[in-house]
Design a protein that fits this description.
The structure holds two protein chains of two kinds. By secondary structure, chain A is an alpha/beta fold. Chain A folds into two domains: about 220 residues, 3-Layer(aba) Sandwich (Rossmann fold); about 80 residues, Alpha-Beta Plaits, CATH 3.30.70.1560. In chain A, about 35% of the residues lie in helices and about 30% in strands. Chain A is built from eleven helices and 14 strands. In chain A, strands 6-7-8-3-9-10 form a six-stranded mixed β-sheet, with helices on both faces. Chain A has a four-stranded antiparallel β-sheet with strand order 2-1-4-5. A four-stranded antiparallel β-sheet of chain A has the order 12-13-11-14, covered by helices on one side. In chain A, helix 3 packs across helix 4. Chain B is built from eleven helices and no strands. By secondary structure, chain B is mostly helical. Chain B has one domain.
Chain lengths: ~325, ~240
């Protein structure tokens, strides 16, 4: 679907992105993650045929962007960081204008506009003037605009910016529904946001691609080892000696580096265990053999924030885990 | 051609739904009517109808140029200001289609305003004796002035995202062009002839006022319009890829 090789863009003497390389397959939902100014918008604007790269090759559906931009634009829906809305038009008229502009045949117009209105939950405001709509609705009209012609590629630059929590959840659901049928690229600097919506993440820092993969594979990449890591445990047992008993039982399991008691309340003890590789079943057995009750045992998911911190500022200390 | 028709439709609707179109129409008709009453009809001395008509076209031409600038100032600057230009740029539409569509929409609107001003010369026609051809020639000249104003205004509008800057730049270009004939007497050949030809008003408009249509005057206004629309397209092309 999309192949990008050595993509570089200069604004005057300032380099916005530097030698980006990635591939995106059909139907994927891919998130661009990066701080403000990292080059997300620049990359999306190039893919959206709005600006030309300084060097590098971009192929969309096998067509070179530099040669066939006009053709590519027909298959493309783009939502810029501010939705491109004509305030004086009604939502329905506006969507009709966009659909016709993108070359939707007139026999399909009514159906396509109806689909976009219902997908984006805009039916109730379809005949209102865009100027009178609230921010959330405007953002949804922007999304409807980008998908009204049923493009194969959807590019959404910060689709959730400025929305309230309820609207963010709605927008997230909406975008998820669009995957499969469309290839969706979106950008955000909100980490949880993007990890919940996207199949794959591309992390960009200062114009360079620093990570590419699922949240899990990026977390492994950031921490170096694929198998090891930290286990979280919750144990039940009677008596004052329980924490120490559990700690020693776990400590005897080969491969366990260190076991720490995190908290203790009434009959429940929480522990963190660092191991060199995946020792979950051995740890579980050790606890059961020691006569304690095992309530919870899981690998500690690394917060995307800390992964991101590590990728973007490898030298900075990690913020304390919560 | 379909994209051009789409742009024309949207822009015309925008003039009709936003205050700018109505304000320009009202102001133009108001000043035109005032000037008609004061200078053309209101004079004490008896005059020929054709003189009255020619005077009407004199200020109508200037007003059309100014109205053109005001109608055109929003055409591209506003799209950049609000970011809607991104929609056009990411759509399968060529730059010349955007420019031509917007120009034609503004021209149709300007034409509409001038249809509403017809009552003034028709009054002269009813009460006096003038050739209908004079009316046609005069209106042709006025519309050509208007189209030049639109083209200049649109070029200015392509340069900036502020409509205020656009109108100032557009007015500056227009005034400079109107005053170009002043340079003719103080420059050597062949520049004197060039400046005299270049002037927006001096040589090219008075024939229309008097009721004569000459091909070279029509050609002058058409080529001025073309040059500025062409320049607008080039500015848009460069903006499209670099911004």
């Amino acid at each position: 679907m999309i192949e990008v090789e050595d993509l570089t863009k200069y604004y005057g003497g300032k380099r916005a992105i530097h030698d980006l390389c990635f591939r995106i397959e059909k139907g994927e939902i891919v998130g661009f993650l990066g701080l403000n100014g990292a080059g997300k918008t620049t990359t999306l604007r190039i893919l959206g045929c709005l600006i030309l790269p300084s060097s590098g090759v971009v192929r969309i559906d096998g067509m070179d962007l530099a040669d066939s931009a006009h053709e590519i634009r027909k298959r493309l829906g783009f939502l810029p960081d501010t939705p491109p809305l004509y305030d004086e038009m009604s939502v329905r008229d506006y969507l009709r204008f966009v659909a016709e502009l993108k070359g939707v045949p007139s026999k399909n117009l009514t159906r396509f506009i109806g689909d976009a209105l219902s997908t984006c939950n805009l039916t109730e405001v379809a005949d209102d003037n865009i100027a009178t709509l609230s921010h959330g609705f405007r953002q949804r009209v922007g999304l409807a605009q980008s998908m009204v012609h049923k493009p194969s590629l959807l590019i959404l630059d910060e689709p959730t910016s400025g929305l309230d929590p309820v609207q963010i959840v709605e927008m997230r659901e909406l975008i998820k529904r669009l995957g499969g049928e469309h290839t969706v690229l979106l950008s955000s600097h909100i980490l949880t946001e993007i990890s919940q919506t996207c199949d794959r993440l591309l992390v960009i820092d200062r114009g360079k691609l620093v990570a590419d993969g699922t949240e899990e594979s990026i977390s492994q990449q950031a921490h170096g080892s694929a198998q090891g890591g930290v286990l979280e445990l919750e144990i039940e047992g009677e008596g004052e000696a329980v924490p120490e008993q559990a700690r020693q039982a776990i400590g005897r399991v080969p491969g366990v580096i260190v076991a720490r008691v995190v908290s203790k309340q009434a009959r429940r003890v929480r522990l963190e265990v660092e191991c060199s590789d995946d020792r979950r079943s051995q740890v579980a057995r050790a606890i059961v053999d020691a006569g304690l009750g095992l309530l919870l045992l899981q690998r500690k998911a690394l917060e995307l924030e800390s992964i991101f911190q590590r990728l973007v500022h490898p030298t900075h200390p990690q913020p304390p885990a919560t | 051609m379909k994209p051009i028709a789409l742009i024309i439709r949207r822009e015309l609707a925008a003039y009709l739904r936003s205050p700018l179109g109505w304000v320009v129409a009202a102001v133009l008709l108001l000043i035109d009517g005032l000037a008609f009453n004061v200078f053309a009809v209101g004079s004490d001395t008896a005059r020929k109808s054709s003189e009255v008509l020619s005077q009407f076209f004199f200020f109508s031409g200037g007003l059309a140029e100014a109205a053109g600038l005001f109608l055109a100032m929003r055409l591209l600057a506003e799209e950049r200001q609000t970011g809607t230009i991104n929609l056009l740029f990411s759509s399968p539409i060529r730059d010349y289609q955007i420019v031509l569509g917007k120009f034609l929409a503004a021209f149709v609107f300007l034409l509409g305003i001038h249809v509403l001003s017809l009552y003034m010369p028709l009054m002269v026609l009813l009460h006096g004796k003038v050739a209908k051809g004079h009316l046609v020639a005069g209106y042709l000249g006025v519309l050509l002035m208007g189209s030049t104003g639109l083209a200049i205004g649109m070029f200015a509008s392509s340069l900036t995202r502020s409509q205020l800057v656009a109108i100032v730049v557009g007015a500056a270009i227009s005034v400079a062009l109107v005053m170009a004939w002043l340079l003719a007497p103080v420059t050597d050949r062949p520049f004197d002839q060039f400046f005299s030809w270049l002037a927006l008003w001096n040589k090219h408009f008075p024939p229309f006022m008097r009721g004569t249509i000459s091909l070279q005057d029509v050609a002058y206004y058409v080529s001025m319009t073309y040059v500025f629309l062409f320049a607008t397209t080039r500015v848009l092309e460069s903006r499209r890829w670099s911004s």
